[in-house]
Amino acid sequence: MLRIAVPNKGSLSGPASAMLHEAGYRQRKESKELVTVDPDNEVEFFYLRPKDIAIYVASGKLDIGITGRDLLLDSGANAEEILPLNFGRSTFRYATKPGTAKGPEDFGGMTIATSYEGIVAKHLADQGIDASVVHLDGAVETAIELGVAQIIADVVETGTSLRNAGLEVIGEPILKSEATVIRRTGAGTDDPKVAQFLRRLQGVLVARSYVMMDYDCRAEHLERAVALTPGLESPTISPLHNEGWVAVRAMVPAKEAQRIMDDLYELGARAILTTSIHACRL
């Protein structure tokens, strides 16, 4: 069986299990379950701490895993990304009290507090900056107030918690992270079971990003309509009973669907419908 690591808790856990369910895999029914076997798909899912997943995958004990890019890089494990999953997005940045520093070039001799010691140490080393890094498991915002560090490095979403702590974001982002499928470095994706797993997840990603659009339009407007809805290969076009009219079906990006519907209506298209796509193979 294919052995796959899945986050057992945290912000990645729910979305990861939801994506796997959409891809047709059995998932655990209770949060206390540590292993779920899906005999129909010949897969075993192991629910592990997100920070440990890269280490298990790198050891070869598990074939692939789902974790965050930040957790993969921070672990230093011998594993690599093979498919970004478009959820769990975050930005990792430095922050400090106003006037302390403008960016990493000013960090010389300072101490930086973070929960991601591996990422920060590598970032500083890559830039030739001589600064100390102290590891904290959480609530790094208080490190400056308590005198543990002059700088912090942490995940920043809106920046509200930092501002509430009297801090400001400085410098360019250290890292932009998201959930990703990982595998032991060099293992590749030639294994048929791994390739099938990736195709299923890619199908979910496409299904989430596109909708199916159907509409009727006059034949003389067809070329302009097709320019708005080219589809992935080309749209499906069928003649209607009413002479001079055709029916068109094509996949369109979900985020652009409303604008495309407006443009088609202005062009004279009618009976414009969109439907969700639950799964696909391209």
TrEMBL record:
Known cofactor(s): Mg(2+)
Gene Ontology MF annotations: ATP binding; ATP phosphoribosyltransferase activity; magnesium ion binding
Domain of life: Bacteria
Keyword terms of this UniProt record: Amino-acid biosynthesis, ATP-binding, Cytoplasm, Glycosyltransferase, Histidine biosynthesis, Magnesium, Metal-binding, Nucleotide-binding, Transferase
Pathway field: Amino-acid biosynthesis; L-histidine biosynthesis; L-histidine from 5-phospho-alpha-D-ribose 1-diphosphate: step 1/9
GO cellular component: cytoplasm
Gene Ontology BP, a term: L-histidine biosynthetic process
Gene3D superfamilies, alphabetized: 3.30.70.120, Periplasmic binding protein-like II
InterPro entries with a match to the protein in the record: ATP-PRT_HisG_long, ATP_PRibTrfase_cat, ATP_PRibTrfase_HisG, HisG_C, N-reg_PII-like_a/b, N-reg_PII/ATP_PRibTrfase_C
One Pfam family hit: HisG
NCBIfam families in the cross-refs: hisG, HisG_C-term
HAMAP family found in the cross-reference section: HisG_Long (MF_00079)
Name of the protein in question: ATP phosphoribosyltransferase
Taxonomic lineage from the root: Bacteria, Bacillati, Actinomycetota, Actinomycetes, Kitasatosporales
